[in-house]
Structure formats: C-alpha cells, structure tokens
Design goal:
388 residues, alpha/beta, 7-stranded mixed β-sheet, 4-stranded mixed β-sheet, 15 helices, 17% strand
Amino acid sequence: MHDFTQELAGLAAQSLARTRHVVDGPQGPVLEVDGQACLSFCSNDYLGLANHPELVAACVSAAAQYGVGAAASALISGHASAHERLEQELAAFTGLPRALCFSSGYMANLGIIGALVGAGDTVFLDRLSHASLIDGARLAGAEFRVFPHNDTARLEQVLARCKSRRKLVITDAVFSMDGDLAPLPELAALCERHGAWLLVDDAHGFGVLGPQGRGSLAHAGLCASRSPHVLYMGTLGKAAGAAGAFVAGHAALLEWIMQRARTYMFTTAHPPMLAAAASAALGVIARDEWRRERLRELARLLRQGLDGLPWRLLPSVTAIQPLLVGDNAAARALAQRLRQLGIWAPAICPPTVPRGTARLRISLSALHTPAHVEQLLAALRHAAGAPS
C-alpha cells in the first residue's frame, strides 16, 4: 500500500498544505476560530443571511413540518412541497421558465454537463472556471477545449471550426478567486450564432449583482428567457445564506436534465427545511437593497485604504476582493500575521490559483462595517511595516 507521508511533506515544503479550522457559533463578521475570536473576511455569506432571523424561523418551522432529512432522491419520495415551491420561486426570481434544485453547486455542475454532452460533443471552458465545471467537463466524456480567460475572440475561432453535434460553452459569471466578471452578452451572442449552449455558473453573483440581486444575467442586461441556449446555475449557500443549488432555463432543457443528470437522480434530495430557508432568503434578497449598497461602499473603502501598501487588489466590482501577494510562502505568512492580529483572511495558493499568483481572498459581507474594514487595513499596514 502506498504511503503518502513523503507527498504530504512535499506539499508542506511548498507551502501548499491546507489546514482545517474549527469554527464555533453562527456565521457573521466575527467568528470563534480554534477558540480565538477573529474578524472574518473569508466567508461567502456576502449578504449576511446565514444567521438571518427570517431564514432561521423558516428552517425551524419547516423542520417541524417535514422533519430533518428528505430521506430519498427527488425522483423517489424526496421532492417535498417546499422544494416545489422553491423551484417555482427561483424560476420567477431569475425570469426563466423553470428551475431545478440540486443538493450543491458541485453536484449541479457535474449533473448538468453530463446530461447535456458526451462522446462526440465538445465543451469549451474558460481557463479560470471553477473546479466543479472542469470536473464536469472531464467526466462527461466530451472533447474538452479550454480558451484563454474571457477571450471571446479566441472562443469564436474555435467555435467556428467545431463540427461536433453538440457544443457547450461554460463559464463562471463571477470568477471566485479573482472577482471579475465574464463578458456574458458577448458569450451569449457567440453561442446563439454558432448553435451552442451557454452554461453560466453564477455561484458568486446570485443575490449580489443585478436589480434586486437577481444575478449576473440581469446585471448584464440579458433576458435569458428569450434564448433556449442559456442555462443559469446559482447556489443557495453563499449570498442566499442557506444550502443547495439550482439550474434555471427553458422547460424542455430542464426536463431533460431532470431525466438524465446522475447527480440529481442518484442522491438524496437536500432537506426540505433548507429549501424553506432558501425561499425566505429570496424575499430578503429582493427587499434589502442596502446590503448590496453596503458591499459596494466597503469595497471602495478597502481600495482607498490600500494605497501605498506593497500589495494590490485585483480589479473587482463584487464582494470578492483578491489581494495579490505572489509567492506561496509570503501569502501564507501574511495570512498568519493577520491571524495573530485577530483577522481571518485566508491565503489562496496553487492549484486553486495559477502559480505565482498566491493571494489573500478578502470576502466582504453586508454585515461588515466601515470600522471592520479599517481594522483590516490597520492590520495590513502593520504587517507591511507602514505607519498606522
């Protein structure tokens, strides 16, 4: 039997070994991490809904009605009225004819891609797409083509030459480690012109971007309901504060995915009480515009405050604000120094990001205050040896 001790030591030597931390209490700006209170800038709870009283109340009420677990796949007996209601609400919220819920974003992407393409087909994938999209494309058995990040000219070249029976273009809407946006209008036009599907993973834009938080398609001014080529995937465990994921699109396409997605057919449905919490989240997302306004203001304060420090923020209009460090060891050392100062902002190293681009991934929440951002900036100035 193979002993992985040497390989683990190699990861540690390259500053690539990952460590879990034990968190106590509900998600919020301040977390108890390994017994230490930390100001957290690492959560994807962008709107601050994970501990919102309306979501908690909806979850508790639904637990009394449905119990804890779904107990079966959705196609057996696991599809509760809470799931049915959530799918209808998600379709209306995104402006698309139909929605289908999955237990997680990873499972959704694996299932969607595998249902749409296979041997003899071609998948076109942005180079910085999420791991779940990459794995889904590989597992589908289709030809796999990667195009340079957000390079629509290159994508058009390879699409024009492709003779496959089915073509699927895949992209994140908001790239999770950079915070930048995909050129969705251009991608949608290319797919329309070349007879390809477009799968948009909006895990980090749903709830945050667009009018009333309706997502990146709305933010880009795209009316996806007019195009049967567009599929929209969103997650419910980030800005929505609950758990699970969904895909929305035209009815026939969604019916096909329901019939063929193995990660939908052969796994237990996510608990109805979490579907109820997600339904409650949709109301808060649409109602509380101040949460998105707060995110924009905090990002502005962060960018202003970093002037003169040795690191730079990558361009981002989202809650994801990546502070580029470069070297793996330097990024981990900076993160560790911040932890000593009571700030939790995780270091992200390869293979999650390209070599030489290790960074701190600073995630803002609507529950952060300007004082919290100033505390982070003061810690960064201290770590850089600059005057406070």
